[in-house]
Write a structure and sequence with these properties.
703 residues; alpha+beta; 10-stranded mixed β-sheet; 9-stranded mixed β-sheet; 19 helices; 32% helix
Length: 703
């Protein structure tokens, strides 16, 4: 339905294009911003990573905004446009879909209504970040593509969190299915944005090891989130230093005024996508007029609101009308089958901003778990470690407090309050493992019931089925547990080798998938028989050392998306035929070397990239539209951070990312300067202390 109304409306462009060219900037709203002076100092280290120092947390947020805009203003502007419902004016029909979702969820109304519920400290940080963006635009007005988009406010920044937070767990998939009248998708998760997503291929790896498990006696935390390499959910690295305690190293997304994962002096955490059932869909019983719905024997008015979506069409912006609806359950979508209401975790809440901020400020386990109890971040696993040697795994989700009596995986009756949940369950009911006897925790987007090895796992029977906890398993989760559990005294070198493991377990879903090809009778198809023989020689690794690696990896990719969805695998014979045809067309052979065809590319840098779609060394998604027929890795291992605390509580960290700090600045030396290290599996130092950052400064300035 969303697609239909957009393209139908675009057909009118010949009539109203001229008016549309004027409408969008005239309809845009400018906002008053508070006048306040901020003072931040920025140091750029040898890799261009910004270190921001300020007397207050707000000063630091101001400097972070300015530094990030220097490296990637275009993407930040995209995010800001989403918060104003103007993304369609930049990105056309795809952007208008995001604007529709923003209006449907009432993201801006939620931010405005609940803004004062945030602590004064959080509001100050959000407003300072907005001020930093505004100052950057005032200094670089030619970079702004939309008129009247700036200045922005603290409420804009909070709106961005409200809009994107539900897409951690796939709300846009549910909305898309309803707008088109399709069945609801199975477990799905998304990387914090309603566009440009490959939810079935999301991934991340995380490991935390206590001193007793490590040969060096240190506490280790490895953060290995898998995100797109470019765009609104590509990681950006920064280190903040504040006189008020916002001292954090790690990574964030465009539009965030603080680091979202990494470490401070005392503790650290990282995230992996989880897939709990956090969305319920209700079928409404409507009256004949279609303006009221029945609820507990009463007829309630269906709230409706007319919105206008700007859609870029060539040089013009076309205003497209759409109506959004809301019931007591939440947003309502009308399609050919009726009216459907959606209730989702974190609905109408701004607590996500407060919780992220409080996480960064925590100095010990008690403070950190108090922050986690805020109930703001709607989903994602947390892997935690601190200087005391504690390690923990939290299956974090704002689980709906569902009542017995209904199958919440299916469509629910919308005419009774008995089927409607209220509020999330408490933090005390979250699945978690703290200081396991095994001495390690891990997650690689697998079920939380495989997290710490034999003797230290949670019992699924201890958790209500109404929490909707997934049972899915990834190859990465199996391999991580196998490798970590097998070694009682892991050296740092062995731990990093585990992180870079490129092997597939025959006990994973890949085992039976590959066996289905070996079982094919191909006497009537000589070409396919050659491919079958090649696959039989595969060494179960995507390290690029075997002739079968490339074909095997292509075969795995055909099954990975369906396995993630929990759907039946495709027919092996037709899949093999498709792979053979593709390889012959692209490469002229079925046995190209993996490193020859799988590349990390940017600007003038073109490097072989090893790893696999469900390997711990992840190369999850390809761009296949390369001029030479090769494939460009665009999603997988992205920002990696190695963190460890010694016996005295001192912290040291290293990091790497696929390209460099200057995200969208091709003329910068930091546009590609981390690529060689990244493909080699090597790391650069994180200058966590301000004095160390100053010592390695290549540039030092104030905005």
């Amino acid at each position: 339905m969303m697609r239909k109304f957009l393209w139908a409306s675009l057909a009118l462009v010949g009539v109203v294009a001229g008016a549309g060219a004027l409408w969008e900037p005239l309809a845009a709203t400018e906002y008053e911003t508070a006048k306040r002076t901020y003072d931040a100092e920025i140091v750029r280290d040898e890799y261009g990573v910004p270190h921001i120092n300020g007397a207050t947390d707000a000063d630091t947020a101001y400097g972070l905004a300015y530094a990030h805009a220097e490296d990637d203003f275009a993407t930040i502007e995209d995010v800001v446009a989403m918060t104003r419902g103007r993304y369609g004016a930049l990105a056309g029909s795809d952007g208008a879909k995001v604007d529709y979702v923003m209006h449907l969820l009432g993201a801006r109304e939620t931010a405005e209504k609940r803004y004062m519920e945030l602590s004064p400290e959080v509001r100050a940080v959000a407003e300072a970040y907005a001020a930093g963006l505004n100052y950057y635009v005032s200094k670089h007005p030619g970079e702004a593509r939309l008129s009247k988009l700036f200045p922005v406010t603290g409420q804009d920044i909070v709106t961005g969190f409200v809009l994107r937070a539900p897409f951690f767990y796939g709300l846009d998939g549910a909305i898309g299915a309803l707008t088109e009248g399709k069945p609801q998708p199975k477990e799905s998760a998304a990387p914090m944005t309603p566009i440009g997503r490959d939810p079935e291929m999301n991934g991340s790896n995380a490991f935390a090891l206590a001193p007793k498990r490590m040969a060096d006696g240190k506490t280790w935390l490895i953060s290995n989130s898998h995100q797109p390499y470019e765009g609104q959910v590509a990681w950006y690295e920064a280190v903040t230093h504040s006189g008020e305690g916002l001292h954090m190293a790690g990574a964030l997304f465009p539009g965030s005024p603080f680091v979202l994962l990494g470490h401070n002096r005392h503790l650290g955490w990282t995230n992996t996508v989880n897939r709990p059932d956090l969305i319920d869909v209700y079928k409404l019983v409507m009256n004949e007029a279609g303006d009221k719905y029945r609820y507990d024997d009463k007829w309630l008015p269906l709230n409706s609101k007319r919105v206008w979506l700007p859609v870029k069409f060539g040089p013009f912006n076309l205003p497209v009308p759409q109506t959004v609806y809301r019931s007591v359950h939440g947003p309502v979508i009308k399609n050919d089958k009726g009216y459907f209401a959606i209730r989702y975790a974190g609905i109408d809440s701004v607590k996500v901003v407060e919780q992220y901020y409080r996480n960064t400020k925590a100095t010990n386990w008690d403070e950190w778990t108090k922050s986690m109890s805020i109930g703001g971040i709607p989903a994602t696993n947390f892997i935690y470690a601190d200087k005391t040697g504690r390690v923990a795994y939290i299956y974090n989700a704002l689980f709906p407090d569902r009542k017995p009596g209904y199958d919440y995986t299916k469509q629910l009756p919308g005419d009774t309050s008995a089927a409607m949940w209220s509020g999330p369950v408490g933090f005390d009911r979250y699945p978690k493992i703290v200081d396991p006897a095994s001495g390690f925790v891990q997650n690689a987007n697998n079920t939380p019931f495989l997290a710490a090895g034999p003797g230290s796992e949670m019992n699924p029977a201890d958790y209500s089925p109404y929490l909707g906890i997934e049972r899915g398993m990834t190859n990465r989760g199996l391999r991580a547990t196998e490798l970590l559990a097998a070694d009682r005294s892991i050296t740092p070198e062995e731990l990093l080798a585990i992180k870079m493991d490129m092997t597939y377990s025959k006990q994973s879903w890949v085992g039976p998938w590959m066996a289905s090809f070996a079982a094919l009778d191909l006497k009537d198809a000589p070409e396919l028989a050659k491919a079958q023989k090649l696959l039989a020689s595969w060494d179960w690794s995507s390290d690029g050392k075997g002739d079968a690696d490339a074909l095997a990896e292509r075969i795995i990719r055909f099954g990975a998306r369906l396995n993630w969805r929990g759907e039946p695998m495709p027919d092996p014979r037709s899949t093999l035929q498709e792979a053979v045809d593709e390889f012959k067309k692209r490469f002229g052979r079925i046995d190209p070397q993996l490193g020859d065809i799988q590349r990390l590319r940017r600007g003038n840098v073109d490097l072989p990239m090893f790893g696999g779609s469900d390997a711990l060394r992840a190369t999850t998604m390809w761009d296949a539209d390369q001029a030479d027929g090769k494939v460009r890795v665009r999603h997988g291992d992205s920002y990696i951070m190695l963190i460890r605390w010694d016996k005295n509580g001192g912290v040291i960290s290293e990091s790497i990312q696929p390209y460099g700090a200057a995200t969208t600045r091709p003329d910068s030396p930091h546009y590609t300067d981390q690529m060689k290290l990244f493909v080699a599996g090597k790391y650069k130092p994180v200058h966590f202390e301000w004095a160390d950052a100053v010592k390695h400064a290549k540039r030092r300035y104030r905005p």
